[in-house]
Amino acid sequence: MAKHAVLSSGAKMWRCLPCAKSELRLDLTLACGQSFRWRETADGHWTGVMGGRVWTLTQTEDTLWYHVYKNQECPGEEGDKIGIAAVSPQVENKTEKRFKGMLKKEEDEEEPVTAVHGSVEETEMLRDYFQLNVKLEDLYKKWGDADPHFRHIADIFTGVRMLRQEPTECLFSFICTSNNHISRIQGMVERLCQALGTPLCQLDQTAHHNFPSLSVLADNGIEARLRDLGFGYRARFLQQSAKQILDTHGPQWLDSLRTVPYVEARDALRTLPGVGTKVADCVCLMSLDKSEAVPIDTHVWQIAKRDYAFASGKGQKSITDKLHRDIG
DNA sequence: GCTATACCTTG
DNA sequence: AAGGTATAG
Q1: Is residue A243 annotated as a catalytic residue, yes or no?
Q2: Which residues of chain A fall short of a pLDDT of 70?
């Protein structure tokens, strides 16, 4: 059976791109609750699904290393046959198209297995996902200059950056977060993908799947299915939101929100069942290119009161719309 | 504009 | 309680 890759073992082909730890810390970025799909499969090695492929990532001081599992490497169960034919139309094809369009010529297929420099396509997928064109050091400097408290704690959090996630996965994952805790959310998202997503490959007893498509989630039988999987009252939100998107907007709607202004995108998302201010802001920030969105959850509110002497909401019992605007 | 309450389930 | 949302008052 195929295994998760480990850099030091030399058993798999690894590629790399230059990337300092000050610009990206995999552990902080992948485990901080933006995405619920990455697991530390070996010391410092993070495995997850992104752009329709299974990746293992690890890093040294100035280098980001990655391994992409090919289909012959991890044939999975019946996953291979179904997976390739049915691979999520709106997720993978979209990504493929985007990168194909940017590339003049593919060179990754012809490289010798000993090559360690990154293939153009896969490097671009990582640069896009981690938004490596954004210079983190410049932002930390700017924020540190403007905020003494930020500068004081910034050293502890060097290398945290926002991911640019796929909108469908981001939205439906964050609908699961209401009144919930991270360990349970991770389990729910994993069960969601394993039950309803197209299989990609199996490694060390773990089956990896794509995130389910909108059309699968919109099916009428899905609520009961999700309740059986332990989603509670969120089961209905997931099914209804998927159905509402397809019925009233169409399959490309979520992606199209990337090109509209923040407030418009946020208000559009809030028309979906199970999506309030906080979830809408998470989806805007983490998948729709709205860097000005500031999700205010219970923790951010506590911090605003504790570390920033946030006065106007001190007596407040809960986070109201006005509080969202003020803290943001 | 703000408060109170229910909502599924489990680490 | 836990990374909220929907509803009524």
Answers
A1: no
A2: 72, 75-118, 312-314
% helix, strand, coil for chain A, step of 5 = 50, 10, 40
Nearest-CA residue to the C1' of B2? A320
Q: Which of A135, A278, A305, A322 is catalytic?
A: A278
pTM value surpassing 0.85: yes
Q: Would you kindly state where each structural domain of chain A is located, as residue ranges?
A: 7-103+114-287, 298-327
pLDDT (tens digit, 9 = 90+) per residue, A11-40? 999 999 999 999 999 999 999 999 999 999
What CATH number was assigned to the domain covering residues A7-103+114-287? 1.10.340.30
Positions in chain B where some atom is under 7 Å from a protein CB: 1-5, 7-11
In whole angstroms, what is the distance from residue A35 CA to residue A43 CA?
19
**Helix (H, G, I), strand (E, B), or coil: what is residue A281?**
helix
**Separation between the CA of A191 and the C1’ of C7 (whole angstroms):** 30
